[in-house]
Amino acid sequence: MDQPSRGTRAEDAERPSGPTRGADVALSVADVVKTYGSNRALDGVTITVRRGEFVALLGPNGAGKSTLFQLLSGLFTPDGGAIEVAGHDIRKNAVPALSSLGIVFQSPTLDQELSVLANLKFHTDLHGMPPRVARERIATELAAVGLTERQHDHVRTLSGGNKRRVELARALLHEPTILLMDEPTVGLDPRSRREILTHVLKLKRERQIAVLWATHLVDEADESDRVVVMARGKVLKAGSAADLRRDMGTQTLSEAFLKLTGGEASEAA
Question: Are residues 42 and 153 in the same domain?
Answer without folding.
Answer: no
